[in-house]
Amino acid sequence: MWLATTFISALIFTSLALLFKNRFKLGFISLMLWGAAIMILVDHLLGYKGGVFLETETNGMIKNSTLLGIIMLVPVILIWLIAIFASRIKKFLHFLQ
Amino acid sequence: MVRTSGSHPENHGFDSHQGHIGMEGRGRQVLPTADRGFPACSRLRRQPMAGRESLWGHYLRYFLFCVILVIEINMACFLAPTAAAIITTGVKKRVPSKYHLEWLNAMLWGGAIMLAVEHVAHGELVPFPPFITAMQNPADIPVMLSELATVGGVMTLVIVMVWAVMVFAASKMSGRSHQEIQVAKV
C-alpha cells in the first residue's frame, strides 16, 4: 500500500507544483516522490509472483502498510522543509548584504 | 493474511534455514548477530588514520573504498540508487546545466531515502554491524547479492531512463520555444 500512498502524494505535490509555479520548491519534492514511486513500483513488479499486488499488512515493525507509506513520506517532507528554510535564510542573508 | 512488501508471501521470505532469501522478506525474521565483524567496511572505518600517508597509501585507501562501495551497492536494493545519487551529487557541478542533473539527483535521493525507511521498518536494516540482517548469515550472501543487485540495478536504470526522457523533452521544448522567439523577432 506504500506504493499507492507514494503515488498519491507524488500526484498531489505535482498538482501543487503546477498550481504554484516556482514557489515553495514544490518541483523538488515532486521529483523526489516520483523517484521513490518509480523505485517502489520496480520493487513490487520484480517481486510479484501472483496474489494481491498491494498488501494492506506487513510483517515488519509497522503492521499497517498505509501507515508505513505515510511514515516513509516523513523524511522526504522534512528534507523539503529544510530546503525551503535554507533557501529563505539564503535570501535573507543576501538581502542583508 | 499478513504479507511482506510487494510480493507473494510464500515466494519472498527471508528464510535462512532453507538457504533462500527473498528480496522482500523484510522483517520476517531477525537473525542473531553471529558475525558482527563481517563487513570489511566497518573494520576499515575503525582503523586509525596515519600521520603521514604516502601517495600509494592514499591510492590504496581510495581503491579499498571503491571496492567496498561496489560490494555495498549489491547488499541491498536501495544502496544502488544511493550510490548513484552520491556520484551524481559529486559530479553535479562538472555537468552542464542543460542536462538537469538536479532532477536525477532529486529522484535518486528521494527514492533511496524512502526505501531506506521501508527497509528499517521491515527490520532489514539494523543500527549495528553488519547493518543488513541478511548479511548475518554468510551462506545466504551469494543469493542475496544476485537478487538485490538485480532489483537495485533495475531501479537505478529505470530512474536514469526517466531522467533521460525528461531531459530530452525539456531540450526539445526549449528548442521549440527558442525557434518561436526567433520567428517572432523576424
Q: In words, what does this structure look like?
A:
- The complex is a heterodimer of chains A (97) and B (186).
- Chain A has helices spanning 2-19, 26-47, 65-96.
- Chain A is mostly helical and 97 residues long.
- The longest helix of chain A has 32 residues, at 65-96.
- With 186 residues, chain B is mainly alpha-helical.
- Chain B has helices at residues 40-46, 55-73, 79-90, 101-121, 141-185, and strands at 14-15, 20-21.
- Chain B has a two-stranded antiparallel sheet with strand order 1-2.
- The longest helix of chain B is centred in the C-terminal third of the chain and has 45 residues, at 141-185.
- The radius of gyration of chain B is 21 Å and the shape is elongated.
- At the A-B interface, helix 1, helix 2 and helix 3 of A face helix 4 and helix 5 of B.
Q: What is the compact description of this entry?
A:
The complex is a heterodimer of chains A (97) and B (186). Chain A has helices spanning 2-19, 26-47, 65-96.
How is the topology of this model organized?
The complex is a heterodimer of chains A (97) and B (186).
Chain A: H1 2-19, H2 26-47, H3 65-96
Chain B: E1 14-15, E2 20-21, H1 40-46, H2 55-73, H3 79-90, H4 101-121, H5 141-185
Antiparallel strand pairs in B: 1-2
Helix pairs in contact in B: 3-4, 3-5, 4-5
The biggest beta sheet of chain A reads: none
Distance between the termini of chain A: 49 Å
* Beta-strand share of residues of chain B: under 5%
Largest interface: A-B, 43 and 44 residues
- What proportion of the residues of chain A form beta strands (DSSP E)? under 5%
Main beta sheet of chain B, described?
2 strands, antiparallel
Indicate the multimeric state: heterodimer
C-alpha-based Rg of chain B, rounded: 21 Å
Number of helices of chain A: 3
Radius of gyration of chain A: 17 Å
- What's the average pLDDT of chain A? 90
The percent of residues in helical segments of chain B reads 55-70%
How many helices of chain B does DSSP assign? 5
Low-confidence stretches of chain A: none
Cα separation of the termini of chain B: 68 Å
